Amino acid sequence: MRRFKVTVNGHSYEVEVEEEGERPTGARPAHSHATQRHEQVAPPVADSSGPVEQIVAPLPGTVLAVKVTAGQAVESGQVLLVLEAMKMENEIVAPRAGTVKELQARQGQAVNTGDPLLTIG
Fold first, then answer.
1. What is this structure's pTM?
2. Cα–Cα dist 95/44, whole Å
3. 118: nearest Cα among 99, 110, 108
């Protein structure tokens, strides 16, 4: 258990923070600049060419950058696009290896939670 002194609105508080175990093997360290990685997908949709996963926006924001193109092969964990929400850049990553089947999002587009961004097959 670690102790910290925190000041909020001019009031000082002493807080205790409990550390829970080690990071799982293979986990990636957090980025030092306010960047988060999100793996948000809708349930797989079956079609004649195999399973397809639709990647949806995990939170409302603006698409800052699209890092892939339709037809491009991607690896699990690869950054697909960057979504800005509340002045933070959030990297949307591939939940599995596959091929980008369709891009629904474009740079500068505003999206809401659950809006389709792209599909991977």
1. 0.58
2. 11
3. 99
Domain ranges of the chain: 35-120
CA distance 45 to 60: 23
At residue 8, does pLDDT exceed 50?
A: yes
5 touches 12 (CB < 8 A): yes
Mean pLDDT of 67-86: 94
Nearest to 74, CA basis, from 39, 43, 108, 27: 39
What CATH class has 35-120?
A: mainly beta
Instruction: Tell me if 90 sits within 8 A of 37, measured CB to CB.
Output: yes
Q: How many Å is the Cα radius of gyration of the chain?
A: 18
Note the residue count of the chain: 121
